[in-house]
Amino acid sequence: MAMTKKEIDQAKYSGDGISRDVRWDDSLPGFGLRVFPSGSKSFVLSYRSKGRKRLMTVGRYGILTLSEARERAKKHLVQVTDGEDPLENRNRDKQGMTVAEFSKVYIERHAQPRKKTWVEDQRRIDKYLIPSIGSHRLAAVTRADIAALHGRIGQDARYEANRILALVKVIWHMADQWGYLPAGTKNPAVGIEPFKEKSRDRFLKPEELPKLAETINQEDSLYVRAALWLLLLTGMRKSEVLTARWEDVDFKREELRLEDTKAGRTTCLSPSPLFRF
């Protein structure tokens, strides 16, 4: 007969205090209820995988109802039919990389080789991710975890909260791409709405100019250096610099004519000792 809630509620441990007391459910092969000497009760599933007899806990009674436990047990039995071992899968997931452990892999394999700003990724990981979810397994981190973190940071620093959200999205994307997550694991940053951002004007301070000049001159590309100096010394718009042509330059008059602008204007190109091409 099928196990009933009434039977579960009335069940009491029977044994010597060491042996298992399991009541099997006739309606689902291998599904049963284990009663402990303490009085607590858990649903279990017995099955064979690769010649081995296995007994796994499906869930605790009171947290799971009888019908919920049956449905979960059925899903595990489907895995067994497909040649998988549900208990082994669970143990492997538990032993998966933590956020802190995979963050090191992300920095070494992705951020450092590909991003000039990888130091910022490392700073945000150390300051925000490690203290809050560093000990969590990658696959166990939920959207609720990331939404809570995003919200906490956003109370004082909305822009920084959005940068964290973007970083988390990339980290979990790489973990999925490299096979560190079980198939079908959802990216916990997807679906979280970032805070609204407003563009801000930022003006250089006089004491910052030498550092800016030094940084520009360290750029490897001649063309990027030239474009940056042209922007800095003429006040031209980025679109104007990127669309300028050699025929727009009058070398004798040292001028750059911008004929395609709304009003049409001319920019002086006086020589500067700051140029080092």
Could you characterize what this model shows?
With 277 residues, the chain is α+β, with helices and mostly antiparallel strands. The chain has 3 domains: 5-94, 2-Layer Sandwich (Double Stranded RNA Binding Domain), CATH 3.30.160; 99-177, Orthogonal Bundle (DNA polymerase, domain 1), CATH 1.10.150.130; 206-268, no CATH class. The protein is 44% helix and 13% strand. It is built from 10 helices and 7 strands. The protein has helices at residues 5-10, 66-81, 86-94, 99-114, 118-133, 143-154, 158-177, 209-217, 222-234, 238-243, and strands at 22-24, 31-35, 41-49, 52-60, 249-250, 255-258, 265-268. Strands 1-2-3-4 form a 4-stranded antiparallel β-sheet. Strands 5-6-7 form a 3-stranded antiparallel β-sheet, with no helix packed on it. A hairpin with a 2-residue loop joins strand 3 and strand 4 (52-60). Helix 4 packs antiparallel against helix 5 (118-133) and helix 6 runs antiparallel to helix 7. It is elongated. Residues 272-277 have low confidence and may be disordered.
Q: Write out the CATH superfamily name of the largest domain.
A: Integrase, DNA-binding domain
| Number of discrete domains | 3
CATH topology term of the largest domain: Double Stranded RNA Binding Domain
Low-confidence runs of at least 5 consecutive residues: 272-277
Strand content: 5-15%
In quaternary terms, these chains amount to single chain
Which structural traits does this protein have?
277 residues, alpha+beta, DNA polymerase, domain 1, 4-stranded antiparallel β-sheet, 3-stranded antiparallel β-sheet, 10 helices, elongated
